UniProtKB/TrEMBL annotation:
Keywords: DNA-binding, Kinase, Transcription, Transcription regulation, Transferase
Residue ranges that the Swiss-Prot or TrEMBL entry lists as coiled coil: none
Organism: Permianibacter aggregans
Span of domain HTH araC/xylS-type: 149-247
Gene Ontology MF: a single term: DNA-binding transcription factor activity
CDD domains reported in the protein's UniProt record: PAS
One Gene Ontology CC term in the entry: cytoplasm
Protein name per Swiss-Prot or TrEMBL: AraC family transcriptional regulator
Length: 253
């Protein structure tokens, strides 16, 4: 099918679904994942069943209209709120953040969080969607701590700059080999690959949401030149940056 035909087919299919929040029911069956949708004031519009035990609720409807401070300890809610404001102010997704959470047994642990902005048809920001995946085994085995969370935050904020493994190991308070083992345990890729993935994720967002040239995106995402971005992007996605832009813009425009 042509890009226009794919767009029309996709839109027709999605509009034909009777229950627009069918995805909520899917996540209800996953006790180690909290799926939620929030409005611009941080109030929960949708939240999955996994919130019930960990937040001490009788049913998930009790969370609707409340915010993170109503459900989670203040130090956790502070970080969640800070992330929400970052997404709202930048309009960009937050991907693979290591965050403290409360597991179903009410014990603290770590999760992997991704948040995406939600907009109406005119592009106005409405809120965000969030998926948090419990890292039960890595938490139990001591593979995640605040220092590692800061290391991941550093990569996400400084991906446009030169980042060395020694630098990251120093932030984590680990040797390069120890850091690599922890990153592999959580993300199933090496530390070097995690840096590249973060840059590719950022490049993909820019290709979809901006009209910047591929060369400019390459420089802004920490690649030495356009050819380096194209090579890495093709390895990860199977597409060149230009081909990827044509496809995603055809689906979203």
């Amino acid at each position: 099918m042509t890009p226009d035909a794919i767009k029309n087919w996709r839109n027709h299919f999605m509009q034909a679904i009777a229950e627009p929040l069918y995805i909520e029911a899917m996540f209800d069956a996953m006790p180690d994942i909290v799926f939620s949708i929030k409005d611009m004031d941080g109030r929960y519009v949708v939240i999955s069943e996994a919130c019930v035990e960990r937040c001490g609720l009788n049913h998930k409807q009790q969370a609707i209209g409340k915010n993170a401070y109503d459900l989670f300890p203040a130090h956790m809610a502070d970080r969640y709120n800070e992330q929400d404001q970052q997404v709202f102010s930048s309009g960009q997704a937050l991907i693979d953040s290591l965050d403290l959470t409360v597991f179903n047994n009410r014990e603290p642990g770590w999760c992997l969080t991704t948040k995406y902005p939600l907009r109406d048809r005119d592009g106005k920001m409405l809120g965000l969607a969030c998926i948090s995946k419990d890292l039960i085994e890595p938490s139990k085995d001591g593979f995640v701590d605040e220092a590692l969370s800061k290391t991941v935050d550093y990569v996400r904020s400084q991906y446009s700059e030169t980042i060395t493994l020694d630098e990251l190991a120093s932030i984590a308070g680990l040797s390069v080999a120890q850091l690599d083992r922890r990153i592999k345990r959580i993300f199933q890729i090496t530390t070097g690959q995690f840096i590249i993935k973060t840059r590719i994720d950022a490049a993909a967002r820019m290709l979809r949401d901006t009209e910047k040239t591929v060369a400019d995106i390459a420089m802004e995402c920490g690649f030495c030149d356009q050819s380096a971005l194209t090579r890495q992007f093709r390895q990860v996605t199977g597409l060149s940056p230009r081909s990827y832009r044509v496809i995603v813009k055809g689906l979203t425009d």
